[in-house]
Amino acid sequence: MPSSSSILSFLGLLAMVSGHSVILNVQGIAGTPASVGFQVDPEIARNCTSISPCQQDATLIRDAEIKANVVNECGRTEINGNIDIGENTENALSANAVTQVEAGTQMTVTIHQVNADGAGPYACDLVEAGNNGVITQNLTVANNVPGVNGFSQAKEQDFNVTVTMPDTLACTGSSAGNVCTVRCRNNALAGPFGGCFPVQQVDTTASKNVASAVDTNLSLEKVQAQVAQDKQDLPAAIKAVQDAGTPENLSAAAVASSVLGLQVTSSAAPVQTVDVVTGIAAAAATATADASNNGKKGKGNDKNNQRREVSNFRTLADVLLKEYWLTRSILVAFYA
Ligand SMILES: *[C@@H]1O[C@H](CO)[C@@H](O)[C@H](O)[C@H]1NC(C)=O
Ligand SMILES: *[C@@H]1O[C@H](CO)[C@@H](O)[C@H](O)[C@H]1NC(C)=O
Ligand SMILES: *[C@@H]1O[C@H](CO)[C@@H](O)[C@H](O)[C@H]1NC(C)=O
Ligand SMILES: *[C@@H]1O[C@H](CO)[C@@H](O)[C@H](O)[C@H]1NC(C)=O
Ligand SMILES: *[C@@H]1O[C@H](CO)[C@@H](O)[C@H](O)[C@H]1NC(C)=O
Description:
It comes from Anthostomella pinea. The structure is a single chain. By secondary structure, this protein is of the alpha+beta class. Helices cover 26% and strands 18% of the residues. The chain has helices at residues 4-16, 63-67, 85-94, 220-244, 247-260, 316-335, and strands at residues 21-27, 59-60, 76-77, 81-82, 99-101, 106-113, 123-127, 137-142, 157-164, 179-185, 194-201, 273-274, 281-282. Strands 1-6-9-8-7-10-11-5 form an eight-stranded mixed beta sheet, with helices on one face. Strand 10 (179-185) and strand 11 (194-201) form a beta hairpin. The structure holds 2-acetamido-2-deoxy-beta-D-glucopyranose (NAG) (5 copies). Residues 25, 27, 108, 110, 158, 160 line the site of one 2-acetamido-2-deoxy-beta-D-glucopyranose.
């Protein structure tokens, strides 16, 4: 979690961003559901170029921010901040909004260009494990959005590009065990703009993940940088929890959340038991997930996900709410 000063400088930065594009629709195998870009809000108007509302779900995906551990590989939107890949993927699965693919499938990706620097060319790549942060392959993009260096004079316009899944494909992510994350972005200097979306592979057997087979890691340098950042952020987070405890603050936070108005469909997740010998999880007997989140975006209770939280927050109340959840999870971890 960045310090308050970095949040403030972020907000300053965001105010200068003035371009965008949105992934409105992705169709893999014909007849399967369509995917939508992570955090793309169907309620946001597409008939204007202004920052508010038409750029609010713009997704920025900047390598420097990824490297600085401010965001993950899927970046952030102006209205909702850091995109939680795991949460978005599970929400999409639950809402039956994940398109299906096989190796070699040609997908039609509809990119909405809001204004000049949402133009092409777009490059797409793939996280086959879904949200482990490892880009495994680049994808071929045909029929690209017109543009050079992310610029053209097109605006408020939809373009269909063709993105081909590779011949060697092994999607292993999500609770389904067969979901990849596809990322597409342009090369605009104010961006890069674009987005990520999930695709579900149907020509392989879904993966049953085993902890000992997870082979990604962070360098010692990155781990230490993360620890240092967390230590620096902790006092502010604790203070935020204390402040957020007041009824005034909680109701302010509730108003902020309702303004954001995100709806998710929650479905129960099965409880699995891991085999002592193989480490493979057996199919579950019971389904007892807490669906009390229904209708509102979960606020950070995402153990499944990378802990890079935060970017821009619409209101201070939202900052406090996020700080609250972070500190809560840190304290829970301390006392566990
Ligand atoms: C723009 O789209 C919104 C809905 O997304 C609609 O309410 C509004 O009337 C439209 N404005 C114009 C000028 O067409
Ligand atoms: C994927 O594309 C990026 C540029 O966008 C390049 O740096 C990288 O080397 C490519 N990876 C492969 C495996 O071709
Ligand atoms: C893009 O493709 C979709 C089908 O996925 C189609 O409905 C739509 O009309 C196409 N849009 C353009 C601008 O070609
Ligand atoms: C783990 O990290 C080290 C150091 O960064 C690197 O050399 C190694 O390739 C990584 N292993 C995997 C499986 O990613
Ligand atoms: C939190 O509530 C206090 C009053 O209890 C108020 O002074 C403060 O401005 C509130 N902070 C936010 C961010 O709403």
